[in-house]
Amino acid sequence: MPDVAYKPSEKQLPIYSGGTITPPKFMPTFVEWLRTKGQRIIKTKLSVGEIYSVPMGKVLFLTSAWVCSFESGANYNFAYLYLTDAGVDTILSAQAFPTGTGNNSITFSPPLGIIEGEKLNLARSHATGNVACGFVGFLVSNKNIPQI
To answer: Is residue 3 domain-resident?
Structure first.
């Protein structure tokens, strides 16, 4: 058996010779990717009807939305934000306001993708109820979305 357990190499190799190390490529989070590839959209609406229609060739990534009612008096009011796609309505955020006033918000984590041509709308249950809504999202071109 040899008596030597460790023998150093003949020549010490340099750890860094300058200009040869490239930093690792880190994968951005989804929100970081949205911030670099998309355009931030903030919309509010103070009456019922269509709020926003996603333009052709784009996808809206919805990060948060809110609805509120500011009906004076004790009237019961129900406000809801909904998505229309090919004539089918999908409720995203809804809130009943027994006293006629209040607000509700929702955060989408991960962000909710809404494709081109779809529309965000606001509706109410009380014919004269005052309602408002809004959303925050990122509009991204289809060409910037990786195909999996």
So the answer is: no
DSSP label at residue 2 = -
- State the DSSP code for 33: H
Look up residue 31 and give its DSSP letter: H
Domain assignment present for residue 31? The answer is no
The answer to whether residues 61 and 112 touch, using CB atoms and an 8 Å cutoff, is yes
One-letter identity of residue 16 = Y
Q: What is residue 3's DSSP assignment?
A: S
Kindly report the CATH number assigned to the domain that includes residue 71.
2.60.120
Q: pTM of the predicted model, to two decimals?
A: 0.70
CB atoms within 10 A of CB 17: 8
Number of domains into which the chain is organized: 1
In angstroms, the Cα distances linking 113 to 5, 54, 62, 109 are 61, 11, 6, 11
CA–CA dist 33, 56 (Å, integer): 21
pLDDT in tens, 17-63: 555 666 667 778 888 888 899 999 988 887 777 888 899 999 999 88
DSSP string over 65-98 = EEEEEE--SS--EEEEEEEEETTEEEEEEEEEET
d(CA 120, CA 143): 23
